[in-house]
Amino acid sequence: MMRKFRLIEATVWLLFSFLLMGSQMKLGPEQKLLQVFHSVGGRPELYVLHFGSRTPDAMTKERMDQLAGKLQVSLGTASLKKNAETDGIRYTATGWIAPDLLVQWVMINDEPSSDKVRPYLSLQLIGKGEPGADFAKARDRCTKVLRENGIIPSYHFSVQGTASVGHTDAENLLTRVTRMLKAREVEEMRTDRTISLSLFSPLLSSGIRTGGGVMNVQVAARMNHDTHRLILTLGTPIITIEY
User: What is the pTM of this model?
Assistant: First the structure.
Protein backbone atom coordinates (compact mmCIF):
# COMPACT_ATOMS: atom_id res chain seq x y z
CA MET A 1 0.00 0.00 0.00
CA MET A 2 2.80 2.43 0.93
CA ARG A 3 4.60 1.64 -2.32
CA LYS A 4 1.41 2.31 -4.31
CA PHE A 5 0.90 5.60 -2.48
CA ARG A 6 4.46 6.71 -3.27
CA LEU A 7 3.97 5.79 -6.93
CA ILE A 8 0.81 7.92 -7.09
CA GLU A 9 2.59 10.76 -5.30
CA ALA A 10 5.50 10.64 -7.75
CA THR A 11 3.11 10.62 -10.71
CA VAL A 12 1.28 13.70 -9.38
CA TRP A 13 4.54 15.58 -8.88
CA LEU A 14 5.68 14.60 -12.38
CA LEU A 15 2.47 15.93 -13.93
CA PHE A 16 2.74 19.11 -11.87
CA SER A 17 6.30 19.62 -13.09
CA PHE A 18 5.23 19.29 -16.72
CA LEU A 19 2.39 21.77 -16.17
CA LEU A 20 4.78 24.20 -14.51
CA MET A 21 7.25 23.89 -17.36
CA GLY A 22 4.45 24.49 -19.85
CA SER A 23 3.27 27.63 -18.06
CA GLN A 24 6.82 28.99 -18.01
CA MET A 25 7.18 28.35 -21.75
CA LYS A 26 4.07 30.44 -22.54
CA LEU A 27 5.74 33.80 -22.79
CA GLY A 28 3.70 36.97 -22.62
CA PRO A 29 3.98 39.62 -25.37
CA GLU A 30 6.57 41.61 -23.43
CA GLN A 31 8.80 38.55 -22.93
CA LYS A 32 8.44 37.54 -26.60
CA LEU A 33 9.58 40.96 -27.82
CA LEU A 34 12.49 41.01 -25.39
CA GLN A 35 13.53 37.54 -26.50
CA VAL A 36 13.64 38.69 -30.14
CA PHE A 37 15.39 41.92 -29.13
CA HIS A 38 18.22 40.02 -27.46
CA SER A 39 18.43 37.41 -30.20
CA VAL A 40 19.29 40.03 -32.84
CA GLY A 41 21.97 41.59 -30.63
CA GLY A 42 19.93 44.41 -29.15
CA ARG A 43 20.57 45.94 -25.73
CA PRO A 44 17.41 47.31 -24.06
CA GLU A 45 17.78 50.87 -22.78
CA LEU A 46 14.17 52.05 -22.48
CA TYR A 47 10.81 50.30 -22.18
CA VAL A 48 7.27 51.61 -21.87
CA LEU A 49 4.01 49.89 -20.93
CA HIS A 50 1.06 52.02 -22.00
CA PHE A 51 -2.69 51.87 -21.42
CA GLY A 52 -5.00 54.41 -23.00
CA SER A 53 -8.78 54.38 -23.30
CA ARG A 54 -11.96 56.08 -22.27
CA THR A 55 -13.63 54.72 -19.15
CA PRO A 56 -16.36 52.14 -19.88
CA ASP A 57 -18.99 54.15 -18.00
CA ALA A 58 -19.87 57.84 -17.96
CA MET A 59 -19.26 59.58 -14.65
CA THR A 60 -19.93 62.86 -12.90
CA LYS A 61 -17.23 65.40 -12.06
CA GLU A 62 -17.37 64.25 -8.45
CA ARG A 63 -16.83 60.65 -9.52
CA MET A 64 -13.84 61.73 -11.61
CA ASP A 65 -12.35 63.44 -8.58
CA GLN A 66 -12.84 60.23 -6.60
CA LEU A 67 -11.25 58.10 -9.32
CA ALA A 68 -8.26 60.45 -9.52
CA GLY A 69 -7.80 60.20 -5.76
CA LYS A 70 -7.96 56.39 -5.85
CA LEU A 71 -5.38 56.22 -8.64
CA GLN A 72 -3.05 58.51 -6.72
CA VAL A 73 -3.23 56.45 -3.54
CA SER A 74 -3.20 53.00 -5.17
CA LEU A 75 -0.29 53.76 -7.52
CA GLY A 76 1.68 55.75 -4.97
CA THR A 77 2.05 58.84 -7.13
CA ALA A 78 3.41 61.68 -5.00
CA SER A 79 1.69 64.52 -6.81
CA LEU A 80 -1.79 65.07 -8.25
CA LYS A 81 -2.63 68.16 -10.27
CA LYS A 82 -5.99 69.24 -11.65
CA ASN A 83 -5.92 72.01 -14.23
CA ALA A 84 -8.33 73.53 -16.72
CA GLU A 85 -6.60 73.50 -20.11
CA THR A 86 -7.55 73.96 -23.75
CA ASP A 87 -8.53 70.31 -24.16
CA GLY A 88 -10.61 70.26 -20.96
CA ILE A 89 -10.01 69.47 -17.31
CA ARG A 90 -6.79 67.51 -16.95
CA TYR A 91 -5.68 65.41 -13.98
CA THR A 92 -1.98 64.46 -13.96
CA ALA A 93 0.25 62.56 -11.55
CA THR A 94 3.71 60.97 -11.56
CA GLY A 95 5.79 58.96 -9.13
CA TRP A 96 8.44 56.27 -8.81
CA ILE A 97 6.75 52.90 -8.43
CA ALA A 98 10.18 51.19 -8.20
CA PRO A 99 13.84 52.20 -8.70
CA ASP A 100 14.31 53.27 -12.35
CA LEU A 101 10.59 52.70 -13.02
CA LEU A 102 8.33 55.73 -13.33
CA VAL A 103 4.54 55.60 -13.31
CA GLN A 104 2.57 58.48 -14.77
CA TRP A 105 -1.08 58.89 -15.63
CA VAL A 106 -3.35 61.49 -17.18
CA MET A 107 -7.14 61.69 -17.08
CA ILE A 108 -8.91 64.21 -19.32
CA ASN A 109 -12.48 65.43 -19.10
CA ASP A 110 -12.84 66.87 -22.60
CA GLU A 111 -16.51 67.79 -22.10
CA PRO A 112 -16.40 69.84 -18.89
CA SER A 113 -19.81 71.41 -19.56
CA SER A 114 -21.56 68.01 -19.61
CA ASP A 115 -23.09 66.46 -16.49
CA LYS A 116 -21.62 63.04 -17.25
CA VAL A 117 -18.56 62.18 -19.31
CA ARG A 118 -16.46 59.16 -20.22
CA PRO A 119 -13.02 60.67 -19.52
CA TYR A 120 -9.91 59.51 -21.35
CA LEU A 121 -7.35 57.79 -19.12
CA SER A 122 -3.73 57.23 -20.09
CA LEU A 123 -1.34 55.30 -17.82
CA GLN A 124 2.33 54.55 -18.47
CA LEU A 125 5.14 52.63 -16.84
CA ILE A 126 8.48 53.97 -18.08
CA GLY A 127 11.65 52.08 -17.22
CA LYS A 128 15.34 52.13 -18.01
CA GLY A 129 17.44 49.16 -19.00
CA GLU A 130 16.11 45.61 -18.82
CA PRO A 131 12.59 44.92 -17.47
CA GLY A 132 12.78 42.69 -14.45
CA ALA A 133 10.85 41.63 -11.37
CA ASP A 134 10.00 45.24 -10.47
CA PHE A 135 8.35 45.71 -13.85
CA ALA A 136 6.28 42.53 -13.50
CA LYS A 137 5.08 43.60 -10.04
CA ALA A 138 4.30 47.13 -11.23
CA ARG A 139 2.36 45.80 -14.22
CA ASP A 140 0.29 43.54 -11.97
CA ARG A 141 -0.30 46.45 -9.60
CA CYS A 142 -1.56 48.69 -12.42
CA THR A 143 -3.82 45.91 -13.69
CA LYS A 144 -5.28 45.38 -10.22
CA VAL A 145 -5.93 49.10 -9.71
CA LEU A 146 -7.63 49.50 -13.08
CA ARG A 147 -9.79 46.39 -12.63
CA GLU A 148 -10.86 47.54 -9.16
CA ASN A 149 -12.22 50.66 -10.84
CA GLY A 150 -14.12 48.81 -13.55
CA ILE A 151 -11.49 49.19 -16.28
CA ILE A 152 -10.20 46.15 -18.19
CA PRO A 153 -6.74 47.14 -19.46
CA SER A 154 -5.28 46.30 -22.85
CA TYR A 155 -1.62 47.26 -22.92
CA HIS A 156 0.84 48.45 -25.52
CA PHE A 157 4.48 47.51 -24.85
CA SER A 158 7.54 49.07 -26.49
CA VAL A 159 11.25 48.42 -25.98
CA GLN A 160 14.10 50.44 -27.44
CA GLY A 161 17.86 50.13 -27.40
CA THR A 162 20.97 49.83 -29.54
CA ALA A 163 22.49 47.11 -31.67
CA SER A 164 26.09 47.04 -32.85
CA VAL A 165 26.35 47.61 -36.57
CA GLY A 166 28.96 44.89 -37.18
CA HIS A 167 28.13 43.03 -40.37
CA THR A 168 24.49 44.10 -40.47
CA ASP A 169 22.49 47.18 -41.41
CA ALA A 170 18.96 48.39 -40.76
CA GLU A 171 17.48 46.35 -43.60
CA ASN A 172 19.13 43.10 -42.51
CA LEU A 173 18.25 43.74 -38.88
CA LEU A 174 14.55 44.20 -39.66
CA THR A 175 14.58 41.12 -41.88
CA ARG A 176 15.96 39.05 -38.99
CA VAL A 177 13.33 40.42 -36.59
CA THR A 178 10.55 39.69 -39.09
CA ARG A 179 11.75 36.12 -39.55
CA MET A 180 12.05 35.49 -35.82
CA LEU A 181 8.48 36.69 -35.32
CA LYS A 182 7.34 34.57 -38.29
CA ALA A 183 5.58 37.73 -39.37
CA ARG A 184 4.24 39.11 -42.62
CA GLU A 185 4.48 42.76 -43.58
CA VAL A 186 1.31 44.86 -43.45
CA GLU A 187 2.67 48.38 -44.01
CA GLU A 188 6.04 50.11 -44.21
CA MET A 189 7.42 53.61 -43.82
CA ARG A 190 10.85 54.72 -45.02
CA THR A 191 12.76 57.97 -44.67
CA ASP A 192 16.41 58.88 -45.19
CA ARG A 193 17.20 57.81 -41.63
CA THR A 194 14.46 55.44 -40.45
CA ILE A 195 12.73 52.27 -41.58
CA SER A 196 9.51 51.26 -39.84
CA LEU A 197 7.53 48.08 -40.54
CA SER A 198 4.04 47.17 -39.37
CA LEU A 199 3.69 43.39 -39.15
CA PHE A 200 1.33 40.62 -38.20
CA SER A 201 2.90 37.81 -36.18
CA PRO A 202 1.09 34.57 -35.25
CA LEU A 203 3.27 34.52 -32.12
CA LEU A 204 1.43 37.54 -30.71
CA SER A 205 -2.24 37.82 -29.89
CA SER A 206 -4.81 40.51 -30.71
CA GLY A 207 -4.11 43.30 -33.17
CA ILE A 208 -5.44 46.49 -34.67
CA ARG A 209 -6.74 47.16 -38.18
CA THR A 210 -4.98 49.68 -40.38
CA GLY A 211 -5.29 50.62 -44.04
CA GLY A 212 -3.08 47.68 -44.99
CA GLY A 213 -4.79 45.10 -42.78
CA VAL A 214 -4.52 43.73 -39.23
CA MET A 215 -1.19 44.29 -37.46
CA ASN A 216 0.03 43.39 -33.98
CA VAL A 217 3.69 44.42 -33.93
CA GLN A 218 5.85 47.28 -35.18
CA VAL A 219 9.60 47.33 -35.64
CA ALA A 220 11.74 50.35 -36.46
CA ALA A 221 15.45 50.91 -36.99
CA ARG A 222 17.54 53.99 -37.63
CA MET A 223 21.25 54.65 -37.72
CA ASN A 224 22.84 56.89 -35.10
CA HIS A 225 25.81 58.20 -37.08
CA ASP A 226 27.38 59.78 -33.98
CA THR A 227 27.71 56.46 -32.16
CA HIS A 228 27.78 54.20 -35.25
CA ARG A 229 25.03 52.08 -33.74
CA LEU A 230 21.54 51.13 -34.83
CA ILE A 231 18.62 52.28 -32.70
CA LEU A 232 16.13 49.39 -32.62
CA THR A 233 12.54 49.76 -31.40
CA LEU A 234 9.93 47.01 -31.08
CA GLY A 235 6.33 47.50 -30.01
CA THR A 236 3.15 45.47 -29.75
CA PRO A 237 0.60 46.06 -31.11
CA ILE A 238 2.18 49.42 -32.05
CA ILE A 239 5.21 51.45 -30.96
CA THR A 240 4.11 54.11 -28.47
CA ILE A 241 7.43 55.91 -27.99
CA GLU A 242 9.48 58.15 -30.22
CA TYR A 243 11.81 56.23 -32.54
Answer: 0.84
